[in-house]
Amino acid sequence: MSNDGYTRRGVLKTGLGAAAGSLLVTTPAHASPAAGPLKLWYDRPAAAWLEALPVGCGRLGAMVFGGVATERLQLNEDSIWAGGPHDYDNPEALAALPEIRRLVWEDKWQAAQNLADEKFLGKPSEQAPYQVLGDLTLTFPGAAEFTEYRRELDLSRAVTTVTYVRDGVRHTREVFASNPDQVVVVRHTADKPGSVTFQAAFTSPQASSTSSAGRDSIALDGVSTDTQGLKGEVRFRALARARTRGGAVRTDGGTLIVEGADEVTLLISMGSSYRSYKDVGGDPAEVAGRHLTRAGGQPYEVLKRKHVRDYQRLFGRLDIDLGTSEAAALPTDQRIARKQLDTDPGLAALYYQFGRYLLISSSRSPGYAANLQGIWNDSLTPAWESKYTININCEMNYWPAAPANLVECMDPLFDLIKDLAETGARTAATQYGAKGWVAHHNTDGWRGTAPVDFAFYGVWPTGGAWLCLMLWEHYLYTGDERRLREHFPLIKGSVEFFLDTLQTDPRSGYLVTNPSHSPEVGHHEDGGENVSICAGPTMDMQILRDLFGAFGEASEILGVEAEMRAKAADARSRLVPNQIGHLGQIQEWQEDYRGDAALSRSRHISHLWGLFPGHQIDPRLSPDLAAAARRTLELRGEAGAGWSLAWKINFWARLLDAPEAYKRLSNLLLPARTAPNMFDLHPPFQIDGNFGGTSGITEMLLQSHGDQVHLLPALPAAWPAGSIRGFRARGGFEVDLSWSGGALTRGRIRSDLGRRLTLRTGAPVTVTSGGRPVTVSRPEPNVVVLNTHRGTLYDLTPSP
What we know:
The protein is α+β, with helices and mostly antiparallel strands. The chain has three domains: 31-81 and 131-316, putative glycoside hydrolase family protein from bacillus halodurans (Beta-galactosidase, Chain A, domain 5); 93-123 and 363-637, Glycosyltransferase, CATH 1.50.10.10; 722-798, Immunoglobulin-like (Sandwich). A hairpin with a 6-residue loop joins strand 20 and strand 21. The two termini are 36 Å apart.
């Protein structure tokens, strides 16, 4: 077998075992095997950043352009942030808080929002940007003409390759970022001895200098920029070292010179002085030098083998086949430009696996959580500072992690939450006079948790609460009580904050947040100003309902905090319920505001949080609310960024509406929303759309909320036949499926935890294990319930 999940005859391995032979799907003869369903490929070099191909190992990233006369490797190290350690909290905020709340109670929204702008925002009111390190440029001598060009990213191995013929010599260049060895590796070979000659040099828009670092190495040293009056304090170093077979290598004033080599291995190492959000006293030269020395002592073949093995341990857990067509033989940019997902189902599968590739590449330990652009950024001032926007975007990055069988990739996010619990405790005390911890709608490398930007966007206190629910999701998928016990203090701290700060609405009697808003959406024009500030918006209530519920369940599982559990349950019962407004929509606010607010076309649809990622709105359990959610989506319209379209895929899938979910996926994969290199476009680039789209495809094929596992719940007509292997479901289940004619033909479920399984299918199924019938109950049509045993496989076939 080849190592990319396919046999030499182009047959997809399903992973369902020998008994699943009927599930094998043969690639049609007219599809080009060279194109490969797990490869992005192109017939020309990248002319722009959004055409370059990303590689990454969590901490390090590079964008590979695949040039011939010059090769540009744009480099990132994930701890390079402008500014330095800083406390964003505003000491004036606490004194202003009672007045802000009073103005909100009296519907004096503009006055409340103005006071929040003046007294409640952090200092400074803007956070720091994530920044580029620089470029390494390889310059090749001779004529620029070339033939037989091909550039690709092999998702099965996480290796980019460019090949071309120049002056009668075939050149091949491979690039990958190694997590085991923490270096970016470039390998250039030629089919004629002595044909590899180039010069390599670093450049950077940062304040920096270049130098030779020995006979075969060059260095780039720099420091991040100042921002918002904060001095840039993150120092960094990049090193590049060449190892050649044949020829010669030398350096001259910071330029690396390779002449007449048969082949060259170039190792790129990066390090910074950033140790944590409060410590930038590290030695970047030591970090970069240590990794370079270790990697430099290993042959290229060993470096590559370790990288591929490490990567495939994660990536190889899951296969997805949605069918193929002649379009699969086209370069990837041409497939996107065709705007014909209906005739290219393999593009959706490629997009799905690309999302998994990006998560593995941008969120691994050691390394920090994936930010708005993952790790890939070529600017000192990227859009939205490439921060962590925690009113949707950061969480969306991790929606596919557990269901797409990459739960380890959540670890850097958990590290971020731990940091925020520390800084957020300071914010809770300073700005609210409260216990516990809080984080608002944005954070950065300095882990700011105070409100930032403007009051219209920033005075939203439930960002930390939402992040805590990601900790709970980890437990729902894994059943890992050790990690739950580790994470429980973070969840408890968030609950403490809200138990301390929730207010009783003098008109409704409900417990509500005040001040807050429905993220980035105004509810009135007040005195000519669009205002968002309010009390008890629907999203807050939905998040807190789930937070208090998760806390209660976790405390019972761990046998702790019984008294606080009762308080949380009481508070949960007093939150504003989901309500249906005058247009038949889910109300976005506690009151049923009319006019422009009810007809907003904002890309944010925060009041459907309870539909997805929550599950408070369910077509089966709450049909009235589900109908109102549908109406909400119709009223909101199609306006929206890539991430917003991605969220809508998930919404429509949860409503079990396959045509509408598929329509949004098709719109997401148009050139206006997906770049030639498959990066999501806001525009510009934001990686959350990639991850949200990956999550949406999962929700179309498998759902596991509400104590049920639902197979093929929103399967579109465009995917009449296919298979999946290795999807994960809540409750500790791993799921393999195949289908034909739009109906399940066979499946296999592995129970990792031995828990009770409620399984919903489109038609009745028979359950066996080891060839023997399994006793099930059938409480309603197309539902089976069975007690599972840990580590046991259960086979599903359509009932006669």
